[in-house]
Amino acid sequence: MAGSVLEIKNLHVSIEDKEILKGVDLTIKGGEFHAIMGPNGTGKSTLASAIMGHPKYEVTEGSITLNGEDVLEMEVDERARAGLFLAMQYPSEISGVTTSDFLRSAINARRGEGNEIPLMKFIKELDKDLDYLEIDKSMATRYLNEGFSGGEKKRNEILQLMQLKPDIAILDEIDSGLDIDALKVVSKGINKMRSEEFGCLIITHYQRLLNYITPDFVHVMMQGRIVKSGGPELAKRLEAEGYEWLKEELGIKDETVEQNA
Amino acid sequence: MTVETKLPYDKQYIESFSSDRKEPEWMKELRLHALEKADQLEMPKPDKTNITRWNFTKFRHDYIPGEKIASMNELPELLQEYFDQDNIPENLLIQRNQSVAYSTLSEELKEKGVIFTDIFTALEQHGDLVKKYFMTDAVSVDQNRLTALHAALVNSGAFIYVPKNVEIEVPLQIVFWHEDPSAALFNHVIVVADENSKLTVVENYLSSASEEETVANIVEEVFAHDNAKISFGAVDHLSSKTTTYLNRRGVAYENATIDWALGQMNDGNTVSENITHLIGNGSSSNANAVTVGRGKQIQNFTANIVQHGKGSDGFILQRGVMLEGATTIFNAIGKIEHGAIKANSEQESRLLMLSPNARGDANPILLIEENDVTAGHAASVGRVDPIQMYYLMSRGLPKDDAERLVIHGFLAPVVTQLPIESVKKQLTQVIERKVY
C-alpha cells in the first residue's frame, strides 16, 4: 500500500471569531517529512489543532482531505482512526487512567472490535518502545501525564506515536522545553517511524530539532499563511540569518496574525 | 400530598415478632421503647434535600426466610459476579431476605473466638455482647424517627466480634440479598474489634429486580477498641424501587483506626450518613466514598468525622458522577472538638456532572473548636473537561469510551481503596452498568 495523502486547501480558521489562518495550502504524502517554521503567533499551532479538530477552532473556508475523504466532516476520534495523529504541545492530564490502559484502549479503538491486540503482544511492544525512548517502565502504570515533567510528557507523546502507528502525524512543538539529551531521544523515536507509509508534519520555532530530523520540505508561516517553501537549506538559512531577510523580501513588517486583525 | 404519620405496626405485633425470634427480654423491651419513641420523634433532616415526601414509613414488615444455598458451586445467577469461583472467601455470610442462606467461618478463627453470625443467632448466643453494643455508644435509638423505627423493627443483620489481640488477615465478607421486597429491610450490623485486633470486612447489599416499592432502613455500628484497626468496605446496590435510609457509624478509641471504602450504588432514593467518632488520642479514619446517580434518583450523603482525641486524624474523600436527571448532595463535615489538640481534619468532595439535567452540590463544612489543629477542605462540582475529551478522542477513542475512561479515572481514588479484589471488580462492573 502506498502512503496516505493529506491535502489542505485554502484553509481559513478562526478562534472566537478572530481569523488566524488566512488561506493555507499544503500537501503531505506518505514518505515525506515536512517542517513548518516561523516565529510565535503566526498560526502554526492553529494549523495543527484545526487538522485534528480541536473544539475551539472553527474552519470558515477551505478543505482538508485524507486520501480524498473529507476530514472536516469527521469527529476527532474518526480523524484519528482514519490515520491522523497529533502530538500535542500541552497534553492533558488524565487522572485515574494508567498510560498502558489508555494506550491499549486507543490501539484497540483503531484496530476495531474482534481484532483487539493480544495482551502479551501489547506488553511486549510497549516494553520495546519504552526502552527505545529510554523511558522508565514505571510510566506505563502511572496515570496518563499526571505529574509528568515537561520532558516526560513529550516522550509520552512520541511513545503514543510509535504505538499507534498513524499514517500522517503532526508534531506540535515537540521540541519545546526539551534538553539536548531528551531532544535526541525524541528525534530517534520520530526517525524510527520513517517509511513510505508514514508522513509527518513537524511544527517548530527552532532549526535545532531539524539537526536531528532532516525534513524533505521546509515551509515558513507568517500572518496565517505559508509564505515560503523550500528544502532543508531553507531551515539552515533561517537558523543562520533569522527571519528578517525573508520579511524584507516579502515586504512584511509584522509577521504575526495580529497584523490584519 | 399529606405525609403518613401513623405508624404501621403496633405493640402487639412487635411483642410477638420478638417472641417468635426468641429474643432476650431486654431486646423486646428495647423494641417497645423504640416504638413509643418513633411516634414522638422527628424525621431526619438531611442538609439540602427535602425528604418529607419520601416514603419511609409505609411498608410491609415481616420475617421472610430465604432459600438456603447448598453449595457455592450452585450460586444463583445474581450472586455469581460477586465471587471469584477459584477464590471463594473462607469467611462468608450470605443473608437472603431475613435469614442466613449460607455461612462459613474458618476453624482457625472459630478457635480464636471470632464471632461471625447473623444478628438473631448473636442475640441468642451472645446476648450480653450484643446488648453492650446495640444502639448504645454509636447510633442512639432516639436520634430520629427512623433510627427509633429501625430499633423497633430490626428483622435481619449480622454481628462480628474479634477478640483482643486477634489479627485477621483474610477478609470477612457479607452479602445482604434483598430478594423479596414484600418485607422491608431493617438490617442491623455490628462490628466490634477488641483491643489490639485487626480485621477487614466487606459487605454487599443487593436486591432482585422488582417493581414493588419497598423501604430499607439500615443501621451499622462499627467499634474499634484501643489499637484496633478496621478496614470496612461496602457496595450498596439496592433497587430503584427501594427508598433507603442508611446510617453507618464508627467509634474509634485510643490509637484505633476505622477506614471506610463505600461504593454507594443504590438505584433508588437514598439518605446516607457515615459518621465516625474519633474518641481516642491518636485515632484515625479515612472515609472514602463513591456514588453514581442515574435516572431521577435523589441521594444525600453525609460523611462526618467527629474528632475528640488528641492528635486524631480524619480524612474524607467523596467522588460522585451524575447522569440523566439524578440529584446528589455531598455533605462533608469535619468536626474537631475542644481539647483535640494536634488533630488534623481534611476533606475533599467532587462531583462530575455528565448531563445538563443532573444536579449536585458539594458542601464542605469544618467545625473547629480548638486552636492547635490543622484542617483543609476542597469541593467541586464540574463537567467533563472538553480538552481532556479532545485529547483522548484524538487517539481514536470514541466519545463514549473516552467519557468512560474519564469517569473510571475520576472514581479510581476511591474504588482502589476497596479491600477485596473481587469486590473491587464487582464495583467497577456496577459503575459500568450504571454509567451505560
From TrEMBL, chain A:
Q: Into which family does the record put it?
A: Belongs to the ABC transporter superfamily. Ycf16 family.
Which Pfam families does the record match to this protein? ABC_tran
Any one Gene Ontology MF annotation carried by this entry is: ATP binding
Q: What are the protein's UniProt keywords? A: ATP-binding, Nucleotide-binding
Tell me what this protein is called: ABC transporter ATP-binding protein
Q: Which gene encodes it?
A: sufC
> What PANTHER family does UniProt report for this protein, alphabetically?
ABC TRANSPORTER I FAMILY MEMBER 6, CHLOROPLASTIC
Q: Would I find Manganese among this entry's keywords? A: no
The highest taxon in the source lineage is Bacteria
Organism (species): Compostibacillus humi
The ABC transporter domain extends over 6-248
UniProtKB/TrEMBL annotation, chain B:
**InterPro entries, per the entry:** Fe-S_cluster_assembly_SufBD (IPR055346), SUF_FeS_clus_asmbl_SufBD_core (IPR000825), SUF_FeS_clus_asmbl_SufBD_sf (IPR037284), SUF_FeS_clus_asmbl_SufD (IPR011542), SufBD_N (IPR045595)
Q: Which residues form the SUF system FeS cluster assembly SufBD N-terminal domain?
A: 12-174
Alphabetically, which GO biological process terms does the record hold? iron-sulfur cluster assembly
Cited Pfam families: SUFBD_core, SufBD_N
- Report which residue ranges the record marks as coiled coil: none
SUF system FeS cluster assembly SufBD core domain residues: 180-410
Family per similarity comment: Belongs to the iron-sulfur cluster assembly SufBD family.
What's this protein's name? Answer: FeS cluster assembly protein SufD
Q: Which organism is it from?
A: Compostibacillus humi
